[in-house]
Automatic annotation (TrEMBL):
Domain YbaK/aminoacyl-tRNA synthetase-associated as annotated: residue spans: 45-164
Annotated signal sequence range: none
Protein name: YbaK/EbsC family protein
Annotated SUPFAM superfamilies: YbaK/ProRS associated domain
One Pfam family, short name: tRNA_edit
Domain of life: Bacteria
Taxonomic lineage: Bacteria, Bacillati, Actinomycetota, Actinomycetes, Micrococcales
Length: 180
């Protein structure tokens, strides 16, 4: 098991994608101070591999999934955050929240280009301002959550209430369902 060194995220932009660093800089100082970052092996960035290698729980790991909903030619995008032990309800809750006829995961290439983040590191901090940010209530309730840092070589550690306080964040009960 590898060890993690927790550092103040605001002081280590080299461990963050540029949009993530900028988003943290825009937060009130007391909120930004609650966000830590740790360098990780980029080859172990995927949630299960990361948790196994670094002794972290899937119960506090949150995945940020980019979903696009469409109604005719209108496409609406949301970053959705769900605990790794749950499955995002894309075709039910998310589709309805986006007021879409159809909802699907955004193509990887488009998500990477639009966020300015690496695949496998996309995080709610620094997403495009026109996107909705949907958080499953389980994530908002976590005393300490693990999310991407915008790059595969780092993870952010922060309270769920900080995620819920982000601009445009919407906490949604039942956004994700427990995996059976």
């Amino acid at each position: 098991m590898s060890s993690l060194v927790f550092l103040p995220a605001a002081d280590h932009p080299e461990l963050l994608a540029a949009p993530v660093a900028a988003a943290i800089d825009r937060l009130p100082a007391d909120v930004a101070a609650r966000i830590e970052v740790a360098a990780v092996d980029a080859a172990l960035a995927d949630t299960v591999a990361f948790c196994e290698a670094y002794g972290q729980s899937l119960d506090i790991s949150a995945n940020c999934l980019v979903v696009q909903g469409s109604r005719g030619a209108d496409i609406r995008t949301a970053a959705c955050l769900a605990v790794a032990t749950t499955r995002l309800d894309v075709n039910g809750v998310v589709r309805k929240l986006l007021d879409a006829r159809k909802a699907t995961f955004a193509p990887m290439d488009a998500a990477v280009v639009e966020t300015g983040m690496q695949y496998g590191g996309i995080t709610p901090l620094g997403i495009p301002s026109e996107w909705r940010l949907l958080l499953d209530a389980r994530v908002a309730a976590l005393p300490r959550a693990i999310v991407g840092a915008g790059i595969r070589g780092a993870k952010l550690f922060l309270p769920g209430e900080v995620l819920a306080s982000l601009p445009s964040a919407e906490v949604v009960d039942g956004l994700a369902k427990p995996v059976a």
